[in-house]
Amino acid sequence: RVLRVAIMGLGSYGTRVAEAMQSCVKAKLVGVISGTPSKIKDWQSKYGIPAKNCYNYENFDSIKNNPDIDAVYVITPNALHHGMVLRVAKAGKHVICEKPMAINAKEGQEMVDACKKANVKLLVGYRMHFEPKTLEVIRMRNSGEFGKILFFQGQCGFKIGDPTQWRLNKQLAGGGSMMDIGIYAINGSRYMTGEDPVWVTAQETKTDPEKFKEGVDETIQFQFGFPSGATASCLSTYNMNNLDRFFLDGEKGFAEMWPSTGYGPIQGRTHKGELTQPVTTHQTVQMEEMAAIVFDNKQPVVPVNGEEAVKDLKIIEAIYQAAKTGSKVVISL
Ligand code: NAD
């Protein structure tokens, strides 16, 4: 059975997902939801989308009556995810939502609850959970090849451009670099170590308060402690390039991935040599796997459900609190 998907939000990432879906076998782009009629027209002709599967932000609740769409993939600015997902759930369609799932844990939990109530799946666009080299490192860790895990380092960031974009608007982004790119270090620290953090300390630096206004973090360094005693040291930034690196250290070996989460080929090595798993288009594999999760109840190696995404949001809140207060904050997930 093919997962028939409507994409909501035809921006840069929505376009990337649409292109990647052209190579899918188990998932198909069949509909769009957009506020821009000209984009809808372009997408209709490019992807052969029938008029009956095109919606705008006012009328998309009527997707409920459309038997030809199984799921809606929400790819709008962060702060809009919550309201949109509640409406999609109410319309009885499965939901795929981009990261960060919401701008705080409370809204995230409401999304989880709404999807549960509507008996629809809620999946979050954590594409790295399906990336072959990442999965190999996780396999090696699970089989004990690194020995006891001691330390993780995650450095995630880029120098952001246009100061007027929504990513630098607290109302639409919910924060700054942490919401957008730092979340990869958070999520990565969890899937690389196989544990959830129990405490965090954090330090914020802001070199350009004009560009990065109140509530929009430019650079935050944060440290986690895990139940096993392992620790992590991470960096999230909107003001430095070349930061896309994971390092995992254990008693018997290590893994280094650089790039670790970018779209391009992920590269890495362990104490046993280069990681040679195939290069994939992340979004193609993600959508194939998500179709199997929705229809076959397939359990991915690393879960991509709403509950897992709420954990990342709780951790983000703890990081912000730790950065603000300068104290060690206990995390309870
Ligand atoms: P974008 O600005 O390119 O696209 C956002 C789209 O939302 C645009 O088409 C815009 O018209 C639409 N939109 C609807 N209502 C809007 C409003 N009120 N204000 C502004 N835009 C509005 O952004 P993007 O890079 O496509 O990011 C969208 C989402 O995808 C974000 O949540 C982001 O974190 C996520 N994302 C995920 C990845 C990933 O690798 N998983 C990569 C990039 C972006």
From TrEMBL:
UniProt xrefs under InterPro entries: Gfo/Idh/MocA-like_OxRdtase_N (IPR000683), Gfo/Idh/MocA_oxidrdct_glycsds (IPR050463), GFO_IDH_MocA-like_dom (IPR055170), Glc-Fru_OxRdtase_bac (IPR008354), NAD(P)-bd_dom_sf (IPR036291), TAT_signal (IPR006311)
Pfam families: GFO_IDH_MocA, GFO_IDH_MocA_C3
GFO/IDH/MocA-like oxidoreductase domain segment(s): 137-255
Keywords: Oxidoreductase
Lineage top rank: taxon: Bacteria
Record flagged with keyword Oxidoreductase: yes
Limits of the Gfo/Idh/MocA-like oxidoreductase N-terminal domain: 3-126
PANTHER family: BCDNA.GH03377
Name under which the protein is recorded: Dehydrogenase
Organism: Mucilaginibacter lappiensis
